[in-house]
Design a protein that fits this description.
By secondary structure, the protein is mainly α. 78% of the residues lie in helices and 0% in strands. The longest helix is centred in the first third of the chain and has 25 residues, at 32-56.
């Protein structure tokens, strides 16, 4: 129900934000407690958001996805709502234990997740934007390990917003099939994201290292997307969405190496096999 493979990608976002903050290369002692608090926070926030996705979609899932936990009877609607509330609350508290700023960002993630699940998903533009903002705030949540860095690097959150916007827009057709037009737009937005990261890597004189992760990232997202463009049926679109979500790990690794955190970049990339393995056991979308 909590989409474990997706939760791994949210942890990768946090690690990317930490890499951008520069705290690991500052010469100070590694703040392991803060890292663990923020990683646990995002896991709870993402899990809670996904649980509420199923809570709000319970009636629709009886028709479209009866195998999900609530319509199949594995968990009651009331218990699922309680579980989701505990997860979101826990995510906010864990972040607040790190700092007030982190707590505020976690609260924003929770609020926007609920807004998406209740209202946003039903709007063709604001829905994808809403979901993108959740990921953008999640990157900033990792960056908040050094609150002062938010003032100088907040704009980087635009990149995951654009990327998740494109994935969410694509996912509109994963049940009944979609239109190639949306997929072409997604391809264009993917290209913008790739070139944006490459630009920052070039500006920081880390382009070659960044390509180590950007090249497989590009291959991983475009291969299923091109197939979906040729045949925009539900199965192909679902595969494109799944690849887009999981490949976030490689994008986060590219962010890390761009900001001179090479070791952390490889640590983030090492989460990819775990996410892929979990995606075979549990649903991603």
């Amino acid at each position: 129900m909590m989409r474990p493979a997706n939760i791994v990608t949210s942890v990768a976002d946090i690690l990317a934000g930490i890499a951008i903050s520069g705290i690991l290369s500052s010469g100070f002692v590694t703040p392991w407690i803060s890292i663990l608090l923020l990683a646990a926070s995002t896991a709870c926030l993402y899990g809670g958001g996904i649980v509420f996705n199923d809570v709000f979609d319970a009636e629709l899932d009886k028709i479209e996805r009866p195998e999900r936990a609530i319509p199949s009877g594995l968990i009651s609607l009331q218990n699922a709502a309680t579980f989701g509330t505990l997860l979101l609350s826990g995510g906010i508290v864990l972040a607040a234990l790190n700092s007030f700023t982190s707590g505020v960002l976690a609260l924003l993630v929770a609020v926007f997740a609920l807004l998406y699940n209740k209202f946003g998903k039903h709007h063709s533009f604001f829905g994808p934007l809403n979901m993108g903002l959740c990921r953008g705030f999640n990157l900033l949540l990792g960056l908040s390990i050094v609150p002062a860095m938010l003032y100088s690097h907040y704009y980087l959150a635009i990149i995951p917003v654009v990327y998740i916007f494109s994935i969410t827009m694509t996912s509109r057709g994963e049940v009944h099939g979609g239109h190639a037009k949306n997929l072409y737009i997604a391809a264009f937005l993917y290209a913008i994201v790739i070139f944006a990261i490459a630009y920052f890597a070039y500006a920081n004189d880390r382009l070659l290292w960044s390509l180590l992760f950007l090249v497989p990232f590009t291959f991983m997202i475009f291969k299923p997307l091109l197939k979906a463009i040729n045949q925009p049926v539900g199965k192909n679109i679902g595969a494109a969405v799944k690849a887009g979500v999981i490949s976030l790990i490689l994008m986060d690794a590219a962010w890390a190496v761009t900001f001179d955190a090479l070791i952390l970049a490889f640590v983030i990339a090492a989460l990819l096999p775990l996410s892929l393995w979990l995606s075979k056991l549990f649903a991603v979308t």
